[in-house]
Write a structure and sequence with these properties.
The complex is a heterodimer. Chain A is 28% helix and 28% strand. By secondary structure, chain A is an alpha/beta fold. In chain A, the strands form three sheets. Chain A has a six-stranded parallel sheet, with helices on both faces. Chain A has a four-stranded mixed sheet with strand order 8-5-6-9. In chain A, strands 10-11 form a two-stranded antiparallel ribbon. In chain A, β5 and β6 (98-102) form a beta hairpin. The radius of gyration of chain A is 16 Å and the shape is globular. Chain A starts with a helix and ends in a 7-residue tail after the last strand. By secondary structure, chain B is an alpha/beta fold. Chain B is 50% helix and 12% strand. In chain B, the strands form six sheets. A six-stranded parallel sheet of chain B has the order 1-10-7-4-2-3, with helices on both faces. In chain B, β11 and β12 (329-330) form a beta hairpin. In chain B, α17 packs across α19 (370-385) and α29 (576-585) packs across α31. The radius of gyration of chain B is 28 Å and the shape is elongated. Chain B starts with a helix and ends in a 5-residue tail after the last helix. In chain B, 54% of the residues are buried. The chains are: A alpha/beta, B alpha/beta. Chains A and B meet through α5, α6, β9 and β10 of A and α2, α9, α11, α12 and α13 of B.
Chain lengths: 184, 708
């Protein structure tokens, strides 16, 4: 299922899917992206990381020290000035490469909608087959705001020419973690 | 038709930017690719059931939605009229001191001209969907329901943006998009209120489902503290699970995408980023949708999921665009919605643009008979406003066989000064426009019924009745002759019931259903006079009348007693190529040995392909005889004839013909064939006028003399 998910997600363009066994490996990978994207403690270059189950057992203070500009308070202003946003998604949909999240908390939306780059963490075991299957996992009665995300923000409104990164991220990194299996 | 409207058609035809964009996109191919592995028929049947059932219960579902959404903290307002919606929003703005609004795409707000109304109160409502923002800056209305600024070039967009940001910009699309991002980003943060539409409204949970690719709806529903959603009642579905098939079809049909980049499902207010709760208002807008639901014919149009695929495949839309073919809502479905959301009379002009080719009906994910409903608008306009006197008189003449035939004999004599080799290449004076791009066919010296008497029939136990139709009778009797000779070769005796007359399709297509029913009455008895095995027609348009429309027309015009006979005729009717193919398979017709005939490309007439369902048979029969088939691009796209369409909309008809001729020429084939004399008149006339060497011939002409 992971292979199909990866193939379909990457088909959406400007999307890269990687898989890791442990959280430690994920932290290394994210660290590399933050470095590559020149994340630093200056407006326009922050990274915001919204509340995630992933944090259990992770020393956030140490991370914030290690990566200057990485913020765990996802406010309106910080998100506006962030280059990178990091969130953990609840589900993946294999046949369309879609990420699904209960985004009821505003910070989840701020971190995934405003920055230029979105890093989405997903438990490899939380990939389901298709849309009807994921709709049995999330329900509007429990989640006032459900978000589905497939690839980057895009448009073809001018002459039907594809352009990436209109109002949302122009690049999407999906990081699948085996260690998170069964989470959410 | 008003002169202003004709002018706007001509202006649109000169600007082929939109046609070019749609051609480069190649929607039919990209759509087919994204639907690979999906049973589209099953999917659209499911959607039609879900939406059809909801349309039958609008009142019940609206209340169910209201209860569910209110239970979760939303405020739901049911508005009957556009005014009620505008007043509600204006009052809300006043109450909250709202001065700035950001909007994501909402056709419902376009429908009621909301922005203009709010501007009167000093409220600035900024569109954030890129296409909507572009047309807002251009002070225009959408030309396409999904891609509103499709008619504008990058140069025009660059000019608009340059003016807005007060600095000169390049024509680079990626750069223009960046400029939009930067400029609109501030507006999202400054806005006091966000307005969105919804693609689906789920009654049992009170949920709004919103799809976007740009991500603007996520910001509109997240950053401002108040969110107002304007939802047309037709967006209601009953259950949460009902959303899945619609979400599966919508992006595929709309933009050839598996799924849109973002789908948001909003159920009641969620927290704002400062910890306060969102003030969520949902306006359920009627504006004649419940009246539409009560109309037995038009209820079906509420199955629309607003994918606009009917625009993308429409040969007329792609030539003239949505500012001519539409009014806010564009194209085929737009014509229908306009007739209801505005009033019937506003569609007087635009309904006449539908040529009835049926392409949209084939791909509609809501399974709506769009051309059928436009024809119903035409019928209602005709019975309400009355057909123009001259037009109705002409149709009466066609229905009176003796007068009609006498007139055509007179016309044969009158045409003589203009006729050469069966074509009229130049018409005098005010009629010259008709022969500008296409030579007109001449009326034949001997009508088919007289020619038929000269062909001796072999007595046989297998008898068929031949229904020639007017075009074969008067223009192409040689096609009729070929039909008879090929069938004779198979040992079939052909009868020609003398009392037959026009099939009624011209009346039907003009909205005069009562007269079309009379045409059926004139023909049914004569066709059943003898105990024939088949009623053979070599005209796809007549086949549509005999096979499909006659029983329906009789039923609808209180002549139900004739329906059983009409159904017998329908069951016995067979197209010539269908019968020949059958005879070849049964070895009753055996092609001569080793025939290597010319190369040929086949044009599928709309009536043959999409009404009678015949397209494999003529190809198989022609190939069996030894012709080499070379398929053309868009072989089943309308040639622009459309019966009287070519007279009513000559400019559009000629542009459609031009495209058809280019596709024919590109194959390099020596012959183009079609089993529809109407198409042959159009295509042969076009080829003659352009001096092409390609011949347009009927399958019967090509098959005559090719069997042992």
């Amino acid at each position: 299922m992971y292979e199909q998910f990866k193939a379909m997600a990457e088909l959406a363009g400007n999307t890269e899917v990687n898989r890791f066994g442990s959280k430690a490996e994920v932290l290394n990978f994210i660290g590399e992206i933050l470095l590559k994207e020149d994340v630093k403690n200056a407006p326009g270059f922050y990274a915001v990381w919204a509340e995630s189950p992933f944090f259990s057992g992770v020393d956030r203070n140490a991370l914030a020290v290690k990566h200057s500009g990485l913020k765990f308070q996802v406010t309106r202003e910080l998100s506006k000035n962030a280059r990178v946003g990091i969130t953990q998604m609840d589900w993946g949909v294999a046949d369309t490469g879609t990420l699904v999240q209960d985004s009821t908390m505003a910070e989840q939306r701020l971190a995934s909608a405003l920055p230029l780059i979105h890093i989405a963490i997903l438990g490899t075991g939380n990939i389901v087959e298709d849309l009807p299957s994921v709709m049995t996992k999330v329900h509007p009665c429990k989640s006032p705001y459900i978000a589905m995300i497939t690839g980057p923000s895009k448009t073809a409104d001018i002459e039907r020419v594809l352009a990436i990164g209109v109002h949302g991220p122009e690049r999407l990194y999906i990081v699948c973690v085996d260690e998170l299996e069964g989470a959410s | 038709m008003k002169r202003k409207f004709t002018k706007s058609i001509n202006k649109a035809l000169r600007n082929q930017n939109l046609a070019g964009v749609l051609d480069r996109w190649n929607y039919p191919a990209t759509r087919a690719k994204v639907y690979e592995g999906i049973d589209f028929e099953a999917l659209r049947t499911q959607i039609a059931e879900i939406k059809g059932s909801a349309a039958g219960r609008l009142e019940e579902l609206a209340e169910k939605f209201r209860e569910a959404a209110e239970a979760r903290g939303a405020k739901v307002f049911r508005a009957n009229s556009p005014k009620a919606v505008k007043d509600y929003i204006a009052n809300l703005c006043k109450e909250k001191g709202v001065k700035k609004i950001v909007k994501s795409k909402s056709m419902a707000s376009e429908e009621i001209h909301l922005n203009k109304h709010l501007a009167r109160f000093g409220i600035q409502a900024d569109e954030t969907d890129l296409g909507e923002w572009i047309i807002q800056l251009a002070h225009q209305t959408p030309s396409h329901m999904v891609m509103p600024a499709l008619h504008l070039t990058r140069e025009e967009v660059s000019d608009l943006f340059s003016k807005e940001v007060k600095e000169p910009l390049s024509n680079d699309i990626q750069q223009l998009v960046k400029v939009a991002r930067e400029n609109l980003r501030e507006k999202f943060f400054d806005a006091d209120l966000g307005i969105s539409g919804a693609n689906i409204a789920i009654a049992e949970t009170g949920t709004l489902v919103i799809c976007t690719n740009e991500g603007n709806a996520r910001l509109v529903t997240t950053l401002p503290k108040t969110h107002v959603a304007i939802v047309g009642l037709e967006k209601l579905v009953d259950k949460y699970t009902d959303a899945a098939p619609i979400l599966t079809a919508l992006p595929k049909s709309a933009t050839s995408q598996l799924i849109t980049s973002y789908v948001s499902m909003i159920t009641g207010p969620a927290q704002n980023d400062d910890g306060s709760m969102k003030d969520l208002h949902i306006i359920l807008m009627d504006n004649r949708r419940t009246a539409m639901a009560k109309d037995p014919k038009f209820k079906e149009a509420l199955q629309c999921i607003r994918c606009a695929s009917c625009l993308n495949v429409c040969p007329v839309y792609r030539l003239v665009g949505g500012h001519v073919f539409g009014h806010i809502y564009s194209g085929g479905i737009g014509t229908i919605l306009t007739a209801w959301f505005n009033e019937l009379k506003t569609t007087d002009d635009i309904q006449g643009l539908c040529i009835g080719c049926g392409k949209c009906r084939e791909i509609c994910p809501g399974k709506i008979d769009i051309p059928g409903l436009i024809l119903e608008i035409r019928r209602r306009l005709a019975s309400k406003e009355g057909l123009p006197f001259i037009y109705r008189s002409a149709l009466s003449v066609i229905n009176n066989r003796k007068v009609f035939h006498a007139m055509l004999r007179a016309a044969y004599i009158a045409q003589k000064p203009f006729e050469k080799d069966g074509f009229i290449r130049h018409m005098p004076m005010f009629l010259s426009g008709l022969s500008q791009y296409r030579s007109l066919p001449a009326i034949a010296p001997l009508p088919f019924r007289d020619l038929f008497k000269k062909i001796k029939q072999p007595p046989s136990r297998t008898k068929v009745a031949f229904f020639s139709g007017c075009a074969i009778e008067f223009v192409y009797p040689r096609i009729g002759e070929a039909v008879v000779k090929v069938l004779n070769k198979a040992g079939i005796e052909v009868l020609f019931p003398d009392a037959q007359s026009c099939c009624g399709i011209p009346h039907w297509g003009g909205g005069a259903f009562d007269m079309a029913a009379l045409a059926a009455v004139h023909n049914i008895k004569p066709l059943l006079e003898n105990d024939v095995q088949y009623v053979v027609t070599a005209c796809a348009t007549c086949a549509t009348a005999l096979k499909k429309e006659w029983p329906l027309l009789l039923k609808d015009n209180s002549m139900g007693n004739l329906v059983p006979d009409a159904e017998i005729v329908a069951a016995k009717t067979i197209m010539f190529s269908e019968l020949v193919n059958k005879l070849i398979e049964e070895k009753k017709l055996i092609p001569k040995d080793g025939q290597k005939l010319q190369t040929l490309t086949y044009h599928d007439s709309c009536h043959a392909r999409r009404y009678a369902g015949i397209y494999k048979e003529p190809r198989a029969a022609l190939a069996a005889a030894g012709y080499e088939l070379k398929e053309m691009h868009e072989c089943d796209t309308c040639c622009g004839m459309g019966g009287s369409y070519t007279v009513k909309q000559p400019e559009i008809s000629m542009q459609m013909l031009k495209r058809k001729l280019e596709n024919i020429e590109d194959t390099g084939a020596e012959i183009v064939s079609a089993e529809c004399p109407g198409c042959l008149i159009q295509i042969a006339g076009g080829l003659d006028k352009s001096g092409s060497k390609i011949k347009a011939l009927h399958p019967a002409e090509l098959l005559e003399g090719k069997f042992k």
